[in-house]
Amino acid sequence: MPANLPPGLPIIPDGDLPSSPLRGRAAPFRMTPEEFEAAVEDALHMIPPKAASAMDNVAVFIEDTYVPRPGEDPDTVLLGLYEGVPLTERDSWWEAGSLPDRITIFRQPILDICTTRDEVIEEVAITVIHEIAHHFGIDDDRLHELGWG
């Protein structure tokens, strides 16, 4: 874990490499799970120390692909997902037994849209920063305005 990140930010790889709905496009870049995890760790190192120290009770996971939930379009493809209560919405009740927020980075969809190692590293960084921004209460519209969409 990077020294500038608070405790409680584990990176937890999870799962195998299933088929992706993006298959059939340009050949996806191949990267081992360990190399992908290193790219996520590198992206976490990009977080400015002041922002990293402000993060509270967040766990970062890596999974192979997003599985749409009941009622969602079965063709939904996500590169990352933030699940939790943004810092801007937390009240005094929040700390009473709340589970950590969860940021999940989905390996296969990122590999499917990239054809080089540099593209993977850039897309992982964008995705990690995008999901962390949600932890700080920044919505998708604002992220798109800032170029992190």
Provide the fold topology.
Elements (H helix, E strand, L loop, with lengths): L10 E4 L18 H13 L3 H6 L3 E6 L16 E4 L17 E6 H7 L3 H19 L4 H7 L3
Parallel strand pairs: 1-2, 2-4
Antiparallel strand pairs: 3-4
Helix pairs in contact: 1-4
Could you characterize what this model shows?
There is one protein chain. Strands 1-2-4-3 form a 4-stranded mixed beta sheet. The protein contains 5 helices and 4 strands; from the N terminus they run βααβββααα. The radius of gyration is 15 Å and the shape is globular. 35% of the residues lie in helices and 13% in strands. It has 149 residues and is of the alpha/beta class. Mean pLDDT is 83; it is low at 1-24.
Shape: globular
Q: What is the spatial order of strands in the main beta sheet?
A: 1-2-4-3
Distance between the termini: 26 Å
The beta-strand count equals 4
Tally of separate helices: 5
Q: Which structural class fits the helix and strand makeup?
A: alpha/beta
Strand content: 5-15%
Largest sheet: 4 strands, mixed
* Uncertain residue ranges: 1-24
- What's the alpha carbon Rg, rounded to whole Å? 15 Å
SSE sequence, one letter per element: EHHEEEHHH
What is the percent of helical residues?
25-40%
What is the overall pLDDT average?
83
Explain briefly what this protein structure is.
The chain has 149 residues and is an alpha/beta fold. The chain has five helices and four strands.
List keywords for this structure.
149 residues; alpha/beta; 4-stranded mixed sheet; 35% helix; disordered N terminus
